């Protein structure tokens, strides 16, 4: 007799319909409210700071600012911690829409948008 509960699905078992990122976050989750609020903000001043022709396409300021703000609500201030949760915690993965954001990007963003971030928070 097997005493321990069996897992509902083995790690190597394939699924026919994999859930989307949106399906993995409950409709009442606080990250959805934060995202909705920040999507309604005017980001034109922030967008004006970027130069369209240089380098790779940037991550929108709303996304980076939302990670910083949501991280603060979760007690995360370190850029390295934010980098980690953006690839390991489903609510942060949902917030960044599956992107990988490096810790140096968070540091540069904080330095570049110090005043606008303060007024946003």
Give me the secondary-structure topology.
Elements: H1 21-24, H2 30-39, H3 44-47, H4 61-73, H5 79-88, H6 90-95, H7 103-112, H8 114-120
Helix pairs in contact: 5-7
Distance between the termini: 57 Å
β-strand percent reads under 5%
Give the helix tally. Answer: 8
Specify the overall morphology: elongated
Radius of gyration: 18 Å
Helix content: 40-55%
Q: Could you give the count of β-strands?
A: 0
Order of helices and strands: HHHHHHHH
Residue ranges: pLDDT <50 for 5 or more in a row? none
Structural class call reads mainly alpha
How would a textbook summarize the main sheet? none
Average of pLDDT:
91
Task: Give a quick rundown of the structure.
With 121 residues, the chain is mostly helical.
Descriptive account of the structure:
There is one protein chain. The chain is mostly helical and 121 residues long. Helices cover 53% and strands 0% of the residues. The protein contains eight helices and no strands. It has helices spanning 21-24, 30-39, 44-47, 61-73, 79-88, 90-95, 103-112, 114-120. Helix 5 packs across helix 7.
Keywords:
elongated; 121 residues; mainly alpha; single chain
């Amino acid at each position: 007799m097997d005493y321990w509960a069996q897992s509902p699905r083995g790690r190597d078992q394939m699924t026919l319909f994999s859930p989307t990122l949106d399906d993995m976050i409950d409709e009442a989750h606080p990250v959805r409210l934060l995202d909705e609020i920040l999507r309604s903000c005017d980001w034109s001043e922030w967008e004006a700071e970027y130069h369209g022709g240089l380098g790779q396409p940037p991550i929108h300021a709303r996304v980076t600012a939302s990670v910083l703000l949501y991280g603060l609500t979760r007690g995360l201030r370190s850029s390295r911690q934010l980098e980690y949760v953006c690839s390991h915690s489903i609510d942060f993965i949902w917030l960044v829409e599956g992107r990988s954001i490096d810790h140096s990007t968070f540091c540069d963003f904080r330095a570049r948008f110090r005043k606008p971030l303060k007024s946003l928070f």
